[in-house]
Amino acid sequence: MVSTTQQSLATTNQLAHVTRPARALIGWMSQQEGQLFLAGRQIQNAQKPEYINKVQEARAAVQNRQPGVDQSELLAQVPPELQEYLASFQSQDAFKPFADEKWLPKIANLLKVCALQPVVFWDHAEERATSADPAEMLSVAKITLPIPDRAEIPLQYDQSRNTWMITSRNPNLKIVGNFSAPIQGFTGCGFLVAVSASFVQVVLHRGRYLLRDGYHRSLGLLARGITNVPVLYREFSEYENLGLPAGMLQAQSYLGERPPLLEDYLNNDVASEVLLPASEKMIVVQGMEMNPLG
User: Fold this and answer.
1) Is the N or the C terminus of the chain less surrounded, counting Cβ atoms within 10 Å?
2) Does 94 reside within a domain?
3) How many domains does the chain have?
4) CA–CA separation, 51 vs 70, rounded Å?
């Protein structure tokens, strides 16, 4: 049922590609897509018999499940011991867009929440949940609904190319603004970058509770036996856009009769550990001197 993987570090394969361990919901993928994930996205290896068989077995295991999913009593009210922390959380600028859209803090049972994301990097999931104490809900809230800090972001400067490079494993690294100002008698200009706030979000859409954001943290918490966690919650209307990133599972997978649950990432009958190319978010800022003609 539960993965016995002990991998937690990125590795390098024979082609010098840095890879990271992930958990893939191959039982809800097409046959071809599941094989490609098992092959580490290397198409030349995707037709191996063991990959074909593994995806077939996972897809069959999904089809053999009883139709329907029990999501009763999935949500609960936030306990009194979190009120002070959540008051501080809701006073932050990062929460304002959520307040405007009527998101509410709730306690969600992650075991009953449906999954939309086909793959979750396993090492990142473990890292994000290391500070959680199962006996202290506040420690969990600081992971799922963090108050944004002003942590410095590492920068690299390539003098030969007049280029600043900012990289992060966190996909929420973004350009958030720009500036210009006099600096010591010169004119300075540039961009503001930050890792934007990300919160664990559960939504109700077409009668089903889905995880909209916070997959690494949720999987890391489940792996540590922590099931009831603070989240932001909102209901979406039937035709309202969920604002999901590209690459999610097909809607018929998570809205159908046999949807994947978050705990299924750890279920070897319907999911598998895979090694995928490591990726980072990168921002590149380059200064160029030009003499345009005309």
Assistant:
1) C
2) yes
3) 2
4) 31
Tell me the pLDDT tens digit for each residue of 90-123.
999 999 999 999 999 999 999 999 999 999 998 8
Which residue is associated with the tokens 């003609």?
293
| 142 and 162, same domain (yes or no) | no
Examine residue 111 and state whether it is found in any structural domain, yes or no: yes
Contacts of 71 (CB under 8 A, 6+ apart): 112, 113, 114, 208, 209
8-state DSSP, 198: -
Same domain, 139 and 204: yes
Q: Is residue 13 pLDDT above 70, yes or no?
A: no
Is the same domain home to 163 and 228?
Answer: no
Q: Are strands 201-205 and 228-236 parallel, antiparallel or unpaired?
A: parallel
227-237: pLDDT as tens digits: 999 999 999 99
43 membership: H or E segment, kind and range:
none
Radius of gyration of the chain (CA): 22
Tell me whether residue 27 is exposed, middle or buried, using C-beta atoms within 10 angstroms of its C-beta: 0 to 12, 13 to 18, 19 or more. buried
**Residues 87 and 191 reside in one and the same domain:** no
CA–CA separation, 135 and 257 (whole Å): 35
**3-state SS assignment for residue 281:** strand
Residues above pLDDT 90, as percent of the chain: 78
The predicted structure's pLDDT at residue 294: 61
Same domain, 82 and 187: no
Quick one: pLDDT at residue 7?
Answer: 38
The answer to whether the pTM exceeds 0.90 is no
Q: Would you say residue 264 has pLDDT above 60?
A: yes
Cα-Cα-Cα-Cα dihedral sign, residues 131, 132, 135, 138? positive
Q: How many CA atoms lie within 13 A of 104 on its CB side?
A: 11
Average pLDDT, the chain: 91
Q: Are residues 133 and 242 in the same domain?
A: yes
In this prediction, residue 173 carries a pLDDT of 87
Domain coverage including residue 164: 155-196
234 & 217 share domain: yes
> Are both 126 and 106 inside the same structural domain?
yes
